[in-house]
Amino acid sequence: MEFQHFLHQHKLRFMEVSKENDTLTCLGCMDIIHGPSYICEACDDNFVFHKSCTKMPPQFQKDTFHPHPLRFNVAGLFVCDACRKLTINLINYRCMYCDLKLDFKCVMSIFNDENEIAKRDEDAHQRTTIHHFCHPHQLTRCMLSLTIWKNELLKKLKIKCRACKQMLQGTLSYIYVCIPCKFVIHESCMTEMPMHVQRSSFHPHHVLLPRIIRQDRDASRHVRCYGCSKKVIGIGFYCNECDVNLHVSCAKYPTRAIKHTCHPHTLLQLGKSIIHNLSCDACGIDCDDSCFSCKKCDFNIHPGCIPLPTSFTHKRHLHQLVLVSSVVEDDTGDYYCDMCETERNPELQVYYCGECNYVAHIDCVLSEVRHPKLK
User: Fold this and answer.
1) Are 119 and 100 in contact (CB under 8 A)?
2) Residue 8's closest CA among 33, 27, 32?
3) pLDDT, tens digit, for every residue of 174-231?
């Protein structure tokens, strides 16, 4: 049995998929193909629909939901006005006379008279938009709930949160977006963003203020982060006196400084999330997971190349402490040094007692340890 879809030039062949095929995704609802479906065998790009999705017409009107006709549209990234989710769809529907946009699943629910969509109050369709100092345009609040396929597409589009620089994940969470600029920021990152940063680890002497940074096509004019050396796009923090720019996450990066005989200045302890194209000045090998760094001199050294005691008994703890790459006690996201009782960065090396689950910053331990290779 063959079927001609209005979006495709070739006829589609009917097939029954008894098990979910994770290599095929319906171009309508974007779910994994399962059950009665249609596929184009003439194309190599897996043009495939669930049978139920092919029943959607190119245009229709449902007065109980919206007074104007809705027409199919081919587009990528947008915010659905029904479910309020950031959506990546090949097919969506738009009002022919106003700015209403709907994803394919919501349109199917409307078309099939499913009450949870069609009978919503008018207030439920109102967009929540705000102005925030992190971006010059209005930001729209929406939910993020993505399939594995959509996650992969977001990676290809290189869409990350402009504050924490993390890829958007498929878990249900709230974000703010500016679609024309492809500017995305987690709601939590935006609400927790300070109006200024004092005593940043990378620039402690001056107050840093927020700065909107537009992308420049000229590579020679790209703004580089003083902390990680990567491009700063969208929003950053800036010291006007020193002409220093930092990503939001780098400006607030939690780290510690130590003094060591290998270098005349204090060294910042850096983890893998902030290391970018750094090589060790002692052995010449790339620093991938951790290093000690002096930004003033562009000096970097592996923890293994710096003479640190690997284990010893400390006067403030009964058992032996061992130098380990990192310690994550649980998934709460709150990690503390048991010696100074302040927050610590879980990606940095620490001294650790496995018997007591006792964790201490390196600089907290070294400030009280006498070692022949340490000042």
Assistant:
1) no
2) 27
3) 899 998 888 999 999 999 999 999 989 999 999 999 999 887 665 667 899 999 888 8
Compute the CA torsion angle 143, 149, 154, 157 (nearest 10 deg).
-150
Q: Is residue 142 classed as helix, strand or coil in its secondary structure? A: strand
Residues 6+ apart with CB under 8 A from 372: none
Cα–Cα distance, 142 to 156 (Å, whole number): 21
Paired tokens of 109: 């629910």
Radius of gyration over every alpha carbon of the chain, rounded to an integer in angstroms: 27
Task: Give the pair of three-digit tokens for residue 156.
Answer: 């290809």
Q: CA–CA separation, 209 vs 42, rounded Å? A: 56
Q: Which residues of 336-358 are buried (b: 16+ CB within 10 A; e: fewer)?
A: ebbbeeeebbbbbbbbbbeeeeb
Q: What is the DSSP letter of 166?
A: P
Among residues 180, 172, 109, 170, which one has the least CA distance to residue 142? 172
Assigned token pair, 147? 């399939």
For the four alpha carbons of 84, 89, 95 and 99, in that order, the dihedral sign comes to positive
This prediction has a pTM of 0.73
Residues 96-117 have a mean pLDDT of 80
SS3 of residue 117 by DSSP: helix
DSSP string, 46-113: --EEETTGGG--SEE--TTT-SS-EEEEE-SEEE-TTT-BEEE-SEEEEESSS--EEEHHHHHHHHTT
Count of alpha carbons within 13 angstroms of residue 159, beta-carbon side: 26
The backbone region for 318, taken as left when phi is positive above 0, alpha when psi lies in -120 to 50, beta otherwise, is alpha
